[in-house]
Amino acid sequence: MTATSASLFDNRLEKPQRDWVLVALWISLALVALIWVAPFVFIVFTSLKSNAAVMGTSAFSPPVDPKFANYTGAWDRGRFNTTFFNSVIITAIKVPLGLFISAMAAYALAKIPFTGRKMLLLAILFGTMIPFQVMLAPLFTLVNGLHLIDTYPGVILPYLAFGIPYQVFILQSFFRGIPKELSEAARIDGASHFTIFRRIFLPVSLPVLAALLILDFVSTWNEFAMALVLLQDRDMWTLPLGLSAFQGQFSRDYGQLNAAIVMTVLPAAIVYLIFQRYFVSGLTSGAVKG
Question: Which structural domain, as residue segments, surrounds residue 50?
């Protein structure tokens, strides 16, 4: 065996060196994922236990005799059929409508030149900096003056007002990165701005819209403070308000209380799982300055 062939044979026997930084990163990610998943596992397990099993077993021990009746009991006792319906109506109207308005406004700010465009964009961006908590009192006065307390429009309109500025900021940044030659070629062919927006900009912005849909759906579905101020009739309550009332009345019924929590967060989790493939790419695209 020659020296050259011997060295090649030795190189083949050498094991590839481990990237310890990558190993440490994976271990850290696994620990963070465990910390995030552990509370949800605890809630799900507790929702399937009786009060005696909750007090007599470990918090993370699986239920021996699952009590699925906790879900039906919590649904009936907490009147979640009403609160769930209200949340579905508000979210189903607000989220698509808000995204559509934001997309059209972002297209106009990014691609249609007009006087005062930069000032209008600054005014919209200023809306993202105002915490809605400081606006609750004047917001209640305004909605009450319009006689919209305990109505769907009385909640949907403020939700739109506080949600659209952030969406416009993300979408107009994305639209500015789309080559202007696409819209110019369409304009030469006689297409209107609305046609360009519908046939060119909307299809290419689907990842960004999906990411915004997830964020907007979760924030609207879980919103509590504004709904608490604007919805005083129990028949108009949303799921977070119903869950808060259920917790106050049945705080010692641990199984049904955790079942109510699972039913409240499950729709948001399902929406995230459906659109999560677009989430990272969508936010990254919207963050790139054109």
Answer: 16-67
